[in-house]
Specification:
The chain is mainly α and 344 residues long. The chain contains 15 helices and five strands. The chain folds into two domains: 223 residues, HUPs (Rossmann fold, 3-Layer(aba) Sandwich), CATH 3.40.50.620; 92 residues, Tyrosyl-Transfer RNA Synthetase, CATH 1.10.240. The two termini are 25 Å apart. The C terminus is likely disordered.
Length: 344
């Protein structure tokens, strides 16, 4: 069974790798895969932690960017709302600067091999390994008996996403390191039985800005599924709402602008946001606001956020005025998929 699927998988890879975009010479760049869920809202943490890096990476790598709608259905979804969220996520990704002539942007469910390989990989991943996934344990405590099996095997589907394309590097946040390590472990395990079948992917993890925390709680990640909108800044928030959220963001005791994740996690998180949007180092920002209080800092940070998000919001709305063209663009990407074979 695996042998038959292995042949099918290899054939798919060959078809994928032979796709050469018009006007592009074949390159031997390393391949990157990364995904974003089309649920909830695209927020500032997504931009600083992922999307901004996606734009930068497409100059150096062959990049595959996937809207992972199969991952989204581990919890109940309204089909129409999910469809609209997929399009908005795609529009936002293009609006931030992902270039479809340099990168491949596609929808996960349009490629059935993701689900097919995931089932095969389920037979190589151990129950105990999935049971150790901290994200599953945390979410299962909240959802109780309503926890789906799909949530339990979520890391296997993520492994399939990555290994299917002979991916060399995966940009992940701190919270996804454990899932990527399972991908690496699974690739090595299968390679022992079927030598050199999978490339073992490497993590690509930024330093500061890799994980933006909630505005209402600097100990928890900024999240699309947060219980309150005060946790995040959405790409659909108006300038006034952005200013309001920054103004109300929790701060630490004292009034000094200092970067110390342990002693001053709240202001450190706001400094990371500022740094992630402007490119200024946190040290430079601390010097810049020396002698100033939280109020002055928050006021200027709010304007930075407004200035960055404004053009992206306008471009997103413009793209969404023609959803038919956007859908064709996502389908077209799969017909002309890659710029080069993936080197090993």
């Amino acid at each position: 069974m695996f042998s038959n699927f292995a042949d099918s998988c290899q054939n798919y890879r060959q078809q994928f790798d032979l796709g050469v975009k018009e006007g592009k010479e074949i390159s031997m760049k390393k391949r990157v895969f990364s995904g974003i869920q089309p649920t909830g809202v695209v927020h500032l943490g997504n931009y600083i932690g992922a999307l901004k890096n996606w734009v930068a990476m497409q100059e150096e790598y062959d990049c595959l960017y996937c809207i992972v709608d199969l991952h989204a259905i581990t919890v109940p979804q309204n089909p129409e709302e999910l469809h609209n969220s997929i399009l908005r996520t795609a529009a936002t990704t293009l609006a931030v600067g992902v270039d479809p002539t340099k990168s491949l942007l596609f929808v996960q469910s349009d490629v059935p091999e993701h689900a097919e390989l995931a089932w095969i990989l389920n037979c190589f991943v151990y129950y105990g390994e999935l049971g150790q996934m901290t994200q599953f344990k945390d979410k299962a405590k909240i959802r109780g008996v309503g926890t789906s099996t799909g949530l339990f095997t979520y890391p296997v589907l993520m492994t399939s996403d990555i290994l299917l394309y002979n991916t060399h590097a995966v940009p992940v946040g701190d919270d996804q390191r454990q899932h990527l390590e399972l991908s690496r472990l699974t690739a090595r395990r299968i390679n022992k039985q079927y030598p050199n079948f999978f490339i073992v992917p490497q993590p690509f993890i930024g330093t500061k800005g890799a994980r933006i925390m909630g505005l209402d709680d600097p100990t928890a990640k900024m999240s699309k599924t947060a219980s309150t909108e005060m946790n995040y800044i959405s790409f659909s928030d108006s300038p006034d709402v952005i200013r309001k959220k920054i103004k109300r963001a929790v701060t630490d005791s004292g009034s000094e602008i200092e970067y110390d994740e342990e002693k001053k996690p709240a202001i450190s998180n706001l400094l990371s946001i500022y740094s992630g949007l402007t490119g200024e180092t946190t040290d430079a920002l601390v010097s810049k606001y020396k002698g100033k209080g939280y109020g002055d800092f928050k006021k200027e940070l709010a304007e930075v956020v407004v200035d960055v998000l404004g053009p992206i919001q306008k471009k997103t709305d413009s793209i969404l005025t023609d959803k038919a063209t956007l859908q064709k663009q996502l389908k077209w990407a799969l017909k002309k998929p890659a710029t080069s074979p993936a080197p090993k």
